[in-house]
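> tool_call: predict_assembly(chains=two)
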Amino acid sequence: MDAAEFRRRGKEMVDYVADYLEKIEERPVYPDLEPGYLRDLIPTEAPCEPESFEDLMQDVERVIMPGITHWHSPNFFAYFPAASSYPAMLADMLCGAIGCIGFSWAASPACTELETVMLDWLGKMLQLPECFIAGTHGHGGGVIQSTASEATLMSLLAARCKAVRRVQAVESERSESDVLSKLVAYTSDQAHSSVERAALIGAVMMRKVPTDEHFAVREEMLKKMVEEDKAAGLIPFYFCATLGTTPSCAFDHITKLGPLCNKENMWMHIDAAYAGSAFICPEFRPLLNGIEYADSFNFNPHKWLLINFDCSTMWVKKRTDIIGAFKMEPLYLKHENQERFRSLKMWFVFRLYGLKGLQAHIRKQVALAKEFESLVQADNRFEICAEVILGLVCFRLKGSNELNQNLLKRITKSREIHLVPCQLSGRFVLRFAICARTTESRHIQRAWRHITQLAFELLQEQPH
Amino acid sequence: MDAAEFRRRGKEMVDYVADYLEKIEERPVYPDLEPGYLRDLIPTEAPCEPESFEDLMQDVERVIMPGITHWHSPNFFAYFPAASSYPAMLADMLCGAIGCIGFSWAASPACTELETVMLDWLGKMLQLPECFIAGTHGHGGGVIQSTASEATLMSLLAARCKAVRRVQAVESERSESDVLSKLVAYTSDQAHSSVERAALIGAVMMRKVPTDEHFAVREEMLKKMVEEDKAAGLIPFYFCATLGTTPSCAFDHITKLGPLCNKENMWMHIDAAYAGSAFICPEFRPLLNGIEYADSFNFNPHKWLLINFDCSTMWVKKRTDIIGAFKMEPLYLKHENQERFRSLKMWFVFRLYGLKGLQAHIRKQVALAKEFESLVQADNRFEICAEVILGLVCFRLKGSNELNQNLLKRITKSREIHLVPCQLSGRFVLRFAICARTTESRHIQRAWRHITQLAFELLQEQPH
């Protein structure tokens, strides 16, 4: 394919993309097929000779589209949002054309530099303490990672390195492997599985801190565990706090946990993967109070800030902590020291939406969640299962887990809307997350009518 | 920005991309600016109100383009290629629109399934043993990773887990931390720094195996180190072989190293990041002989197979080894269990080029490297420093390192072509890699005239 054909096919693809997104509501949000469906629809080997673009695009509709869970349908309420916007897509086109690999300044100066400045822009939108901003006299700065999991792993490894050095500075006879075997990391029992996985990769112990009735970690509980572990000869070194847990969007008490971590020489990492985007709104910024105690902070603009995947932003208070852990230059701060020109997406989205446009997006989606919450509250067959703070509503039918499992099965089978469940204190709960950029009040109202209709049918069939 | 504006701006961007790539030769391949150039060119904060697309695109030319190292210029001969093609860019546009996050089958069936089948297609192109192909009765299969570094880390962690279990199965009283402290991994002294980094992350020892006069690891040397380490009470568990090293594209002797690893219960991972793409050509496939002994194999189609970054393909012989190490389901085989719909790029490129088109691309670029090699060989002021097997030529002026450093400085400063150096046996060597898809014989000839002109001037100035 030469440039002339790309001009033609590229414009056709722009229309295909716009058509797909404009008419996405007409497609069932969730596919109706069995695992393994695809293999029979395409050849077992690549073609030897080139095929035509027309044939390929026909197969997109025949093979791919029937197997898509449409994350950007306004009827998609599962997981957390995956950000998507036209400005980000335009930036990705440019990024693909430039096609640089930014593993050092020389390999791509603009890529390296725009990233640092975009992290400063975003850090300022969040009102991060100055020590996290690179263009100041502080020692911190930000970097783009692929995922929150990657950011968690990097912070844990940096903390591990720092802890080993600190212990050995005092007890020079202790071997590294002895110290490693005594290190303990902590996180909420509500934390994402990737936190536990980071400890598995880093070969250190991880303990789950029990949460309170709001599914949040409180200072007392962590303090108790740390003291027990220290008494047993272990070395607490890391705590991963969560702001906006995956099951219920709960917030750990970082204003109290932070001073405890600082006092105990424990690295505090804050994972705000979903919730972080909301902190650009002054009314939600208090949820981030306590950030000043953190050593590192991460959230995913690719979840809720209209920047297509992947764009997970991480800030550290001391760049040298990361550099020390990886024996690398500042420019190699990344977990994988290779990347695309991802900051272009941030630049396009920030400039074409403006801060006000981004705030409007967050506020609209929180309002939609509140609207759904009101609908649930007004129906006494249902109950709300966790405080609705941002764009997630956890709810269930009053009654057994089985009843709610059956309700979800019917919802999934109907394919009009898509939800996923979670477990909260042993209870099977439905999660309703506002996801698509184009979700409006009418979608919320229709979703609720649909849910209540299925619930009505289900309850009718129950033995009394 | 709504769909209507995206249709308009998207088509403008398609033309911008095509114009950029058609006229890329007119731009200096390497930027002429100092680190920190960008911060002064843009505001210190994001705008509050939305800005116009026209202003943004003007800033792309004003702020971004002057800071780009043009990886797709036919005058770019640095590092290794970064793959780029129009079909891959079209696939990325579609991928952005679908915008699914493929962390489970249900989250995106087509994404999960197309990936498995595309890895089979590619595995068959490489004539991988059947045990690596998912659609067979074997226990293996392939998965897309972001980078070769990520694949190396995953293989090392899987090997670590397997080794601990094996030792503890025999000596049940040994603690995990004791076993970990005795594990030793090995790799070539020519291996990429990411291999050493994987060991650092995994908290295991790594030893560098000295290479022979062709910069390759031979069986004898690894065997000697393994025996010494075993005698010292250590536990050899992992060897990362390299096919096509970064400095000189050297090939470790895997047909001999493989049986040694198998006999010693050491996991053999093969990193063929750059060279792997060439194995789709029957004449280069013998370089992969010995793959049957490997536990895992990785290369980067995003380097040399016309699939834009990121697309690093990894196969394992036993899926359960990886699943066991990460306590995860097969669908979560990834290092980061989140991803974009990357297999679309493979599907588009394989179908629109066909196997023959891909082979033609590899063969053309190897021929261009051979052409450059001949030019160097015909000039007795220069010498070739490593056998030219694929698309990389290592060469230097006969004489001191300082002389060659000065030559490279002049090349870099002139900005007509771009090269980077390497060290081979203490000698400063220039690497000339065929990179851009559009590089032709005339670019090679012109590059050589340019290099010899600068060398002539430099040698004239030398005291005799």
